Amino acid sequence: MSRQDEPIEPILQRLREATGREESFRILFDRFYWPLFRFFEHRGFSTEECQDLIQETFLRVYRGIEAFRGESRWEHWLFRIAANTAIKALRHRAAAKRTGQEVPLEGDGEGDSPALTSGGSARTPEPLRQLLGMEMRELLTRAIEDLPPQMRRCVRLRVLQDLDYDEIAEILQLSPSTVKVQLFKARKRLQMELGEAFADFDL
Fold it and tell me: 110-166: per-residue pLDDT in tens?
């Protein structure tokens, strides 16, 4: 089995233990470069911007790999970082347009973007709000698919069809209290996996 076909977990373990870290990091970079490139390209970034954002994403991965303990799937963790990187880039772009200044995409990845530094609550343009909303819903949909079957059915009916607890209970032949428990557990799992991406959703 080639290193490119190696399961993810041993690679991540070597990264956490700093055993062959550089080689392991290169394997991950090569394996996920094009999925990340398509991810950013689909969101309207140019080829050069996609390359910059991929580098920024993997820099954050490198800095934060020790904090990844496998509570969520590696792909979810990676693409959550990518989504947050894209959001920061879009906010930088919006800030640059408002101020007429050139704002680079890259940065330290940790501080507030210029769009948030004016009183802590910049006004996001409508097209950007719409794009961010689509981004969050895509992340949420991916995470829902990995929930246990009964929990996933409850969440789908709640989120996609906007049904109340009693309606969900009737459809799934469950008690309302069971539905509440399932949604409560789902909320905790989704918050753990999606972090700030889950902030605008309510179960």
Answer: 333 333 333 333 444 444 444 445 666 677 777 888 889 999 999 888 877 778 888
For tokens 């799992």, name the residue.
189
Q: Distance between CA 142 and CA 76 in Å, rounded?
A: 8
The answer on 129 and 110 residing in a single domain is no
Q: Are residues 32 and 105 in the same domain?
A: yes
Q: Cβ distance 35 to 83 under 8 Å?
A: no
Is the domain of 120 the same as that of 195? no
Question: Please, what is the end-to-end C-alpha distance for the chain in angstroms?
Answer: 43
The candidate with the shortest Cα–Cα distance to 183, out of 198, 161, 168, 200, is 168
pTM to 2 decimal places = 0.50
Residues 45 and 38: beta-carbon distance below 8 Å? no
CA angle 115, 119, 122 (to 5 degrees): 35
Q: Which domain holds residue 38?
A: 1-124
CA distance 144 to 156: 8
Q: Do 73 and 64 meet the contact criterion of CB atoms below 8 Å apart?
A: no
Q: Indicate the Cα dihedral angle 191, 61, 53, 7, nearest 10°.
A: -90
